[in-house]
Specification:
Length: 273
Amino acid sequence: MTTAARAVFAPGLFDGQVALITGGATGIGFGIAELLSQLGAHVVLASRKPEHLEPAVADLLARGRSASSVQVDVRDPERVKAMVAQVVDEHSRIDILMNNAAGNFYAPSASLSPNAWKSVIEIDLYGTFFCSQAVLPVMKAQGGGRIISTSMTLHYRGWPMMAHATAAKAGVDALTKTLALEWAEHGVRINAIAPGPIPTEGVRKAFTPPPGSAATDVFDVEQAMDDHARKTIPLGRMGTPADIAQMVAFLASPAGDWITGGIFVVDGGEWLK
Ligand code: HXC
């Protein structure tokens, strides 16, 4: 994050608040954890993989931040409920839920196996629903909370080789609007952010065709991302996790108090091209 951007948010903005961030140990999720913890929140990073969680929490603690972790597979509603119970047990509250866990890969629809389809739909869409539903009673009892989900823009026009992810994220957008209407009466604000291309390790992996696939000969992920930034992003650069984290901080702050059911594109203008 640039110094100028950092100055936008008041130090201590999230003091005393607890933010639960799925997929919080890597990529965009970790960028969100960095900013929210810098602004005073205790961040709970959730992931399936201890090998991601441990170094991420250690990194934040070494910087004097307040952070902990919980292991979860968001596809499993019972594990999700146990995660929420554990966070409440350890930290008493959940002010912000960031539904950021995603599993995507680049693959032709014609040969996508049923399990491949199911895996992505379950992580991206079911996981968002299970986590949102599980935190509702906690937020309701507290008198409110904020739920923010990571969406995408690729389903606005369709995106070859991403049938599973585009379908799941279209569902996330629909959930954002519907849950916002249902849960406004409980003081829970629900929004989504649609990031443009952000070259995290996860995205590199998602866009790298598996060995032996028909696309391997014609697709160079690094070249494709460079070409993309130059030709199709009006603001002329790829995004960073901090670009998304800043929007999360705004929506989660009191400046967002009258904002719910919104899907906010943060992509340098890319989707309009
Ligand atoms: C075709 C694939 C595949 C690939 C996996 N599968 N990778 N099929 N092409 N590249 C198939 C497997 O063969 C299997 O089907 C099924 O998917 C499940 O695979 P598993 O590895 O057993 O599943 P699991 O361990 O649960 O892993 C889930 C996953 C994995 C989604 C497949 O990629 C994952 O955990 N990803 C998490 C990290 C991630 O992807 N982050 C992306 C974030 S980037 P069969 O039939 O063989 O059993 C992002 C933005 C992308 O979201 C868009 C940018 C613009």
